[in-house]
């Protein structure tokens, strides 16, 4: 019997679908599967030494950076094991992973290729977009849900959070998005009965809220709506949150009441910028006006919007950054924006579609093997200096557990000092004092790494 160790290094505070799903496939094939989630567990060297195959799950940039440090250690601990890397960030970092000693690199829909690799009839390097018949994820070997991010509701109560995925990939082609180089505008569905069974087992394990990790929950709205109706019928007390792009929110505002009525309390949306030029460069297919429609539309329906931004790009000016802060304040979104969003710097990983732009080619430095990205400098050094100052401020404020409003009020003078504007929006709007639902681990993805890899939300 092949002994397989699946390792996750970081998955944004979730009990990882990317461990649980392949664990079910491999066990069904007769493998002896162990899982290690190093976000909440320490490396068990005995388990590493015993494994015939160690597979690292790389769903995001931070996870890949941590794994890149870990892989040589695992190789030393167990020189006879085959090493594999799988997940979104594996194929785009293929060369580096091979140099580190990884034998097989699997991207896209990874369960079947991983199972084939363990059986001995799989390809070593593959990106599969084949439609799969999913199995119910196997979660019994994972740390309990109370070890992961929790949800705090506006009334101060907390909820245990489970995590699942109803689709993977995305049918859109935003230039800065790490999904595009792998899925190329396609998405794949996890069958409804599998998602329901996965949610059922997480509720039995204590989940009171589910985060759907789909890159865009409304890539397949019929699938999404049928799913949440079924879940709500069975578990009327369950709440959930999803991620939906601005364009889809605008097109489906009339369906938001269905989400609300089935337990959706929060929608994360990658707004990225309020600057039309930057939205165009990213090919986001939405405008600032669309963002405003979404803010108002979700407010009317009563679902909290959790907007995310790429605050610093090569095209961000000091004045543009100030305008971004003003917009957040004027729209009364200060309580809704996690402080890390003010500091996020555009990440340009290997394979990024942004690299096709001459403007970007002229701007980036050679690939940095430690940071796993193409570093860039802003043409105006004052913008880079501001980003560093904002990042340091956010990190310190997070340590002190300051409120979102306090962080916002501290960020604004940093830029006001540079552009000579007022330190508060004038006239300053009356901010809502109503608290908002918050997950205890922030969403961030397209962030160029700084020395700190994780910041908690406030
Ligand atoms: S940024 Fe969002 S909408 Fe755009 S391609 Fe990526 S997942 Fe899809």
The count of β-strands is 15
Number of helices: 17
Backbone shape: globular
How much of the sequence lies in strands comes to 15-25%
The termini sit apart by 47 Å
Structural class: alpha/beta
Mean pLDDT: 92
Which range best describes the helical content: under 10%, 10-25%, 25-40%, 40-55%, 55-70% or over 70%? 25-40%
Overall tally of domains: 3
Please state the CA-atom Rg, rounded to the nearest Å: 22 Å
Low-confidence stretches: 451-458
The largest β sheet comes out as:
7 strands, mixed
Largest beta sheet: strand ordering: 14-13-12-11-8-7-15
Molecules bound to protein: iron/sulfur cluster
Cofactor: [4Fe-4S] cluster
InterPro entries: BchE-like, Cobalamin-bd, Elp3/MiaA/NifB-like_rSAM, rSAM, rSAM_CUAEP, rSAM_horseshoe, rSAM_sf
Protein name: Radical SAM protein
Domain Radical SAM core: 156-373
Notes on the structure:
The protein has 458 residues and is α/β, with parallel strands linked by helices. It has three domains: 3-128, Rossmann fold (3-Layer(aba) Sandwich), CATH 3.40.50; 144-265 and 276-282, Transcription Regulator spoIIAA (2-Layer Sandwich); 310-458, no CATH class. It has 17 helices and 15 strands. A seven-stranded mixed β-sheet has the order 14-13-12-11-8-7-15. A six-stranded parallel β-sheet has the order 2-1-3-4-5-6, sandwiched between helices. The protein has a two-stranded antiparallel sheet with strand order 9-10. Helix 1 (17-28) crosses helix 6 (111-119) and helix 14 runs antiparallel to helix 17. The protein is globular and about 70 Å long. The N and C termini lie far apart (47 Å). Mean pLDDT is 92; it is low at 451-458. The structure holds iron/sulfur cluster (SF4). Residues 170, 172, 174, 177, 179-180, 215-216, 245, 270 line the site of iron/sulfur cluster.
């Amino acid at each position: 019997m092949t002994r397989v160790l699946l390792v996750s290094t970081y998955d944004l505070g979730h009990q990882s679908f990317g461990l649980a799903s392949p664990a079910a496939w491999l066990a069904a094939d007769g493998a002896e599967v162990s899982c290690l989630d190093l976000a909440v567990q320490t490396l068990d060297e005995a388990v590493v030494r015993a494994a015939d195959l160690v597979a690292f799950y790389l769903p995001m940039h931070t996870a890949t950076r941590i794994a890149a440090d870990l892989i040589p250690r695992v190789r030393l601990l167990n020189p006879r094991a085959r090493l594999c890397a799988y997940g979104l960030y594996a194929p785009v970092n293929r060369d580096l992973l091979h140099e580190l000693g990884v034998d097989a690199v699997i991207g896209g829909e990874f369960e079947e290729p991983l199972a084939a690799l363990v059986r001995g009839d799989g390809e070593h390097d593959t990106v599969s977009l084949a439609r799969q018949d999913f199995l119910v994820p196997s979660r019994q070997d994972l740390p309990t849900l109370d070890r992961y991010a929790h949800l705090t509701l506006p009334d101060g109560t907390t909820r245990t959070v489970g995590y699942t995925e109803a689709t993977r990939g995305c049918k859109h082609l935003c230039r800065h998005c790490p999904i595009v180089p792998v899925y190329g505008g396609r998405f794949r569905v996890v069958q409804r009965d599998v998602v329901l069974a996965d949610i059922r087992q997480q509720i039995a394990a204590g989940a009171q809220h589910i985060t759907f990790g789909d890159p865009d929950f409304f890539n397949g709205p019929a699938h999404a709506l049928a799913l949440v109706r079924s879940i709500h019928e069975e578990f009327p007390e369950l709440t959930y949150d999803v991620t939906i792009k601005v364009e889809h929110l605008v097109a489906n505002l009339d369906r938001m009441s269905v989400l609300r009525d089935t337990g959706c309390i929060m929608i994360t949306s990658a707004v990225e910028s309020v600057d039309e030029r930057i939205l165009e460069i990213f090919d986001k297919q939405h405008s600032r006006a669309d963002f405003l429609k979404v803010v108002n539309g979700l407010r009317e329906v009563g679902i909290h919007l959790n907007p995310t931004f790429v605050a610093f790009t090569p095209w961000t000016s000091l004045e543009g950054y100030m305008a971004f802060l003003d917009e957040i304040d004027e729209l009364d979104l200060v309580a809704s924006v996690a402080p890390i969003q003010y500091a996020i710097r555009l990440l340009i990983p290997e394979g990024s579609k942004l690299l096709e732009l001459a403007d970007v080619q002229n701007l980036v430095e050679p690939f940095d093997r430690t940071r796993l990205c193409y570093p860039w400098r802003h043409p105006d050094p004052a913008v880079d200096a501001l980003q560093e100052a904002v990042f340091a401020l956010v990190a310190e404020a997070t340590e002190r557990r300051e409120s979102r409003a306090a962080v916002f009020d501290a960020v604004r003078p940093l830029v006001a000092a540079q552009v000579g504007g007022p330190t508060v929006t004038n006239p300053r709007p009356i901010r809502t004092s109503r608290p908002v639902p918050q997950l205890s681990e922030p969403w961030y993805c397209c962030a160029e790494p700084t020395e700190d890899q994780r910041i908690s939300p406030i």
